[in-house]
Amino acid sequence: MSMIIIFRLARRERLSSLLASPEQVTDFLHDTDGEDADGPENRFDLDKAWHGLHFLLTGTDWGGKPPLNFIAVGGETIGDVDVGYGPARAFTPEQLAEISRALDAVSSDALRQRFDPAKMMELDIYPSIWDRDPADDDTLGYVLEYFEMLKSFLRKGAERGLGVVVYMS
Length: 169
Known about the structure:
Elements: E1 5-10, H1 12-20, H2 25-30, E2 43-45, H3 50-58, E3 76-77, E4 89-91, H4 93-104, H5 108-114, H6 117-122, H7 139-159, E5 163-168
Antiparallel strand pairs: 1-2, 1-5, 3-4, 4-5
């Protein structure tokens, strides 16, 4: 079974409601036609690039410093409701703005310099494909493509004054 990270933008009021009543989180995350579904632009799936990107941003497997560690850690846990692989995490609009600014300060070229397939395999960075021959499988290109899409998605959310819910499915 594959593990993917999904980002779901949310208004401040909705984040507060979810934190106060975590049992609502599953409905919120999977709402496709209700009050929270203001279009597909409010949801972004990082696919299996999430752990490789977390490593490139933080140099760690599961740690790192905020705000660039947001993919794997950080935010406020939304209760103990398991939404796939543990609970979802909420980031306020202010935190999302900080994350977006931090991402905008990182270039794909900088991440390319941090790519270390041997270290990524040693740390068991999911999905453990980093030592493949780039001629056969451009794993770095895959992660960098998702990095640019994630930056754009989160920037648009921050510009709209939204926060974000992050979860692993």
